[in-house]
Amino acid sequence: MSSQKNLHLAQQFLEKMGSGASADEIAALCTPDLDWNIPGDTGVLPWVGHQTGRQAISDFVRDTQAMIERVSLDIKDILANDNRAVILGHLQSRINATGKLIDTTFAIVLTFSGTQIASFLMLEDSFAVSIAARH
Predict the structure, then answer these.
(1) How far apart are CA 27 and CA 25, in angstroms?
(2) How high is the pLDDT of residue 76?
(3) Cα separation of 129 and 21, whole Å?
(4) Pairwise CA distance, residues 132 & 129, whole Å
(5) Are the C-beta atoms of residues 80 and 3 closer than 8 Å to each other?
(6) Tell me, what's the pLDDT at 10?
(7) Which residue ranges form the domains of the chain, and what is each CATH number?
(8) Is 80 exceeded by the pLDDT of residue 135?
(9) Where are the alpha helices (DSSP H) in 20-125?
(10) What whole-number distance in Å separates Cα of residue 23 and Cα of residue 91?
(11) Residue 98 phi, psi dihedral angles, 5° rounding
């Protein structure tokens, strides 16, 4: 696909994530065999780690809605080419169970297959996430 179409898909993904769209609506943007990866301390938060399938993003949406308070999200840039889009930004989230704040810059790399997201990779300060999630 073209870089413009991939840029639009990345923007659509962000809009749905920010609008409170249902987990199923967001998962519909992804291929059934989505490759999901947020490297970090697995076991502290259910969405950290490597998973396969749309259920990974559905669970992410549901779990984050239940487990964290979104404080701020600042998208700095979205870069796209014919295969992928990279979303650069900064976010702050408060873990409900601990009251601790995650304050991190991030990069999300979306790889596309046709008009769907085939791969989601989020790179963030996994050390800060782990500290905030632990009691």
Answers:
(1) 6
(2) 98
(3) 24
(4) 5
(5) yes
(6) 97
(7) 3-133 (3.10.450.50)
(8) no
(9) 23-27, 54-67
(10) 20
(11) -110, -20
